Amino acid sequence: MDILVLDDDVDSRRYLVRFLQSLGHRVEEYSDGEAGVRAFTAGNFSMVLSDILMPRKTGIDFLQTIASFPGRGDTSVVLMTANANVETAISALRLGAYDYLTKPINLDGLAAIVERAAGYQGMRRDNRRLNEEMVAMNERLEDTNRRLEDENKIRLQMEVSLLRRERQYRATTSLLTCPVEEFEDLLESILRDALQLVKAPDGYIVLCDDGTQTCSIHHGIGLYASWLMESWPAELGMQEYVYNTGEILTVDDYRQYPQRLNDKRLDRLTSVIMLPLKQEGQVQGMLCASWSDMVHPISTEDIEVLRQFCDLATVALERTNAQKKISHMAFYDTLTGLPNRASLSLHIEQEMKKAQYGKALGAILFIDMDDLKSVNNNFGHSFGDNVIITAGKHIVDAVGEKAFVARSGGDEFIIVLSGEYSREEVARFADTIINALCQEYEVSIVQLHMTASIGVVVYPDDGDSTVDLLKKADIAMYAAKKAGKNCWRFYEPIFLQEAYEKMMLTNGLRRALERGELSLHYQPQLTVKGAVIGFEALLRWNSFEHGSVSPIRFIPLAEESGLIVSIGQWVLQEACKFARRLADMGKGTLHVAVNISPRQLMADDIVDTVRRSIADADIKPEQIEIEITESVLIESMEDSICKLVQLRDSGLMISLDDFGTGYSSLTYLRSLPVGVLKIDKSFIDKITSDEIQLQLVGSIIDLGHALGLTIVAEGVETEDQLKLLTQYGCDCIQGYIFSPPIPEEEAIKFLNK
Fold first, then answer.
1. For residues 687 and 725, what is the distance between their CA atoms, to the nearest angstrom?
2. What is the pLDDT of residues 627-678, one digit of tens each?
3. How many domains does the chain have?
């Protein structure tokens, strides 16, 4: 076969030329599209292998230029590209390309395409030969009619042959010109034309599913017209032989067939031809032509005509199958196999169109796996992916056939529950999903208990657009997380207002540093006898837009958004400057306590950042105290303890803040390199009125002293509280009884009292 190779990459072009020549083909090569057009015009090539991106003329330009050339249809054009995408593939096929390849070229795939193209060209030559034969036969028939009346029988036989070949020509032309995008229309056309070729009144075309080994009728004519989309095992009846062997099956009289099915609809069936439709050597479908009532003699010519036709049909189906694969990639998630966000949007849009006419009701559940980030951080994303895959299976198993399930991205899944359901029924459905996801998941060599949070919206009550419904479902999901996770929440209008306020506050917080809206207040820490030992630095935000914002509101936002890292670094630097000022006043023995968030402690450079801030302020490490909470253990206890040990060994004091509100575990307490234990205000509030609470605080003080820790009571407000804490041996006091958090200048004045 003569092949023209066009590629501006010399090495790639010569590599292909040598390979094609090794297959026995004659090859000409050029480096650009213009030279290729000249060579194509002068030569007689059966195939062109062209790169898409070339100087002067691209592969697409080359294809468009030769489209109108005489004899263009005799040449198969295959395009090559290193940047294949869906649009490039569809554009090339629409312009008449036979196929396309992605660089680097797979030689086995190239050899297969060359072989198919050779067969394709042979079919086209057969068609031309058939056309020439028809013309010759017409001439012979006319001559015979003029000269030989007695040869009427021969003339009639030739007419029958001519009509058969004409039908074959028309069927072949129909396949070559049928748009590849219309897959079901293509199947229907294949069946209709095949039956016309052999004048069969009945027939069907099936596609096989290798995974389930079943066959489904996609189109039926005559006896099988009502069998549309019926399925049965591939290894049943006549199709068992065709499916297993890939060979043609003929049955002279089905009534005498040994593997006849006990189906009354087949009582009239007599003669049958069943042919395989193959792709890459595997049976992907079958075509059946049949007759009823009377036995129809099946000739060798009938079988050969249908065989040739099915070979050509297979080529057309391969092209269509390639497009189906591209479509599947566009609309299905590669990790879970579930519909993706694009598919989800189309599904919800269809539901919204129905809802506009009062024909659709339903609910959308927005599912987010709780704390999957911890799995990714501690074990790696591959294990997190395994959790996502398992969660997807749990959801599908729990939902069954009654709802649409999609993965929208990350650890998020969406369920669209179509139908008229009460809120109670939707609530029970959400409970089912929560229970299905709340279980042990295998991660690495351990079993981790995982949960999920769900936001629920009802349509069309909560919205009439895809974007609006998914946004509100997302907001409701975060309300579920806020409520403690492992639960669900229906969307409520107040959630939208809260989400908007949260977004605006977060947006304002991003500019708070550069606007100078952040400041530090300092709350004194004193011994029970009233001697100042230090201050705790507390962050305040006075926003130009929102006024004074409580730390209870903006600190969690800073944590969620990641802003706590940059803000925390600023707090540390300012606190070190304040410590420098205290040292300059001769108060270098006083410490300044700085809160470090879990997110800050996770940063790889946290130890260097603290050391650098202390060095920049030219102070002693002993002047800075690092305050942590038990929540630092949530993400990575070993890593956190390692960093805290480095800070302690650098000379800093480490204190455990808010003791009693987190894990409150003696094991954790002994593991942490802390020197100070701060009892949370919630324990102190009731010690004057609740004897059990007082005894509990006393036990904490004794426990801390047993571990060699200094005890600080937070939130002390009354003399009675101070008296009791003194009696129980508390070391230090922090609270309004001495001073609220105050600006730096007032803190200096407090020292000078």
1. 9
2. 988 776 655 677 888 899 999 999 999 999 877 665 555 566 777 899 999 9
3. 4
